[in-house]
Amino acid sequence: MVKIAVKLTNCTKEEQRSVIHFLWAGVPEAQIHLSTCAQYGDKVLSRRIVYEWIEMFENGCTSVTDAERSGRPATATTTRNEERTIELIRENRRITVEEVARRLNVSVGSAYSLIHDSLKFSKVCARWVPKELTEEHKRKSLDVCS
Fold first, then answer.
1. What fold characterizes domain 13-58?
2. In whole angstroms, how far apart are CA 142 and each of 2, 28, 115, 135, 136?
3. Band of the pLDDT at 88, cuts 50, 70, 90?
């Protein structure tokens, strides 16, 4: 098995693909995957992905970056929509996802994703609250307790 002398701190996909491309020249596929497993631990690319990249290198590909993909770009999760959503929630903590979607002119799924995934809000007692307390909230809580 090939041993890499120093553990690499950045665990990007491109970095792992570069290592795969480097080892591909003279190391068997199974050993390449085992070496990357030892190097990257739980953040390693899957065996299938390693083999796919080896196959691409064998077919003449030299780039380790992802190719452009077709598809519609995400238009609902813009910074403008995030700011507008925060304004809407601050105006009315009981606003529904459907209402946010209607006001932003986006789908309900996009509004839900924007609120829950991007902004990290969750419903508590029919109100939108941040999942993590701000410094001001922590200070007020400490003052109340003492």
1. Arc Repressor Mutant, subunit A (1.10.10)
2. 54, 60, 28, 11, 10
3. very high
Residue with tokens 């290592």: 19
CATH of domain 79-129: 1.10.10
Q: Write the CB contacts of 53 (distance below 8 Å, at least 6 apart in sequence).
A: 17, 20, 21, 45, 64
By mean pLDDT, which of 3-7, 54-58, 116-120, 134-138 is the weakest? Answer: 3-7
pLDDT in tens, 5-57: 556 566 788 888 888 888 888 888 888 888 888 878 778 888 888 888 888 88
Looking at the chain, which residues constitute the CATH 1.10.10 domain(s)? 13-58, 79-129
Q: Which residue type sits at 23?
A: L
Residue 100 has pLDDT above 90, yes or no: yes
